[in-house]
Task: inverse folding
């Protein structure tokens, strides 16, 4: 596993430039705090580990699955899209049926009303 150490200031500069963690390969970021022996101040190191991660680490901050198995991700998206389209068709069909029933009932009521008025 390839591990890189970056100071927090270089990581911030990297984010300002538009870089940072992420990219084509997945990166997990961990923050470690250590004490230096020279001045006793604590320094923060960002540890970035490149490589495979378990499923729980495959969703980045945007909520997008970022793993190396693009085919599986594509199948998952296509399955969810097909389910959504089916639900949309069901709702649309149900709405059209209810609209047709409304028009039929409205026509019947208008006919009944005109018949009632014609009696006078």
Result:
């Amino acid at each position: 596993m390839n591990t890189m150490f970056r100071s927090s200031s270089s990581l911030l500069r990297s984010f300002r430039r538009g870089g940072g963690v992420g990219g084509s390969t997945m990166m997990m970021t961990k923050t470690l705090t250590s004490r230096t022996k020279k001045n006793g101040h604590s320094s923060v190191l960002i540890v970035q580990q490149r490589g495979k991660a378990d499923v729980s680490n495959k969703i980045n901050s945007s909520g997008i699955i970022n793993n190396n198995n693009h085919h599986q991700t594509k199948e998952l998206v296509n399955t969810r899209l097909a389910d959504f389209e089916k639900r949309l068709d069901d709702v649309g069909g149900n709405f059209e049926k209810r609209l047709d029933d409304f028009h039929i009932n409205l026509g019947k009521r208008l006919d009944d009303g005109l018949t009632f008025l014609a009696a006078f």
Remarks:
- Helices lie at 8-16, 70-118.
- The longest helix spans residues 70-118.
- The radius of gyration is 31 Å.
